[in-house]
Amino acid sequence: MIRRLVSRREERPPVAEANQRQPLRPWQIRERCFNVRRRGLDPVEIRTFLHRVADELTVAQTALVAVQEENVRIKNALRAWQSAQSANHRYR
Question: If DSSP codes are grouped into helix, strand and coil, which group holds residue 42?
Fold first, then answer.
């Protein structure tokens, strides 16, 4: 049992490498395959769960894009307002 725990630790990437990885995409989750073992998990249950996670990731990533676009819109509006305000103060 101790040997098994040590080997699992060795398989994990270091924390620094994990943080540098690209974000998972929904298709990567849907297409992920796992090794089949003698008394493994139910493949249908795994696939169902992965599809659920991929769907939630799709929603989160779509919301993130919308927020980023809104952020750009607000920044542009603020710049325009600041420019208009500074132009008004110059002529006074």
Answer: coil
84: left (phi over 0), alpha (psi -120 to 50) or beta: alpha
> Rounded to whole angstroms, how far apart are CA atoms 3 and 69?
50
Taking the C-alpha atoms of residue 63 and residue 54, their distance in angstroms, rounded to an integer, is 14
Instruction: Say how far apart CA 71 and CA 79 lie, in whole Å.
Output: 12
Residues 10, 16, 18, 21, CA torsion sign: negative
What is the pLDDT tens value at each position of the chain, 92 positions in all? 444 444 444 444 554 555 567 888 888 888 888 777 777 888 888 888 889 999 999 999 999 999 999 999 999 999 999 999 888 776 65
Contacts of 27 (CB under 8 A, 6+ apart): 54
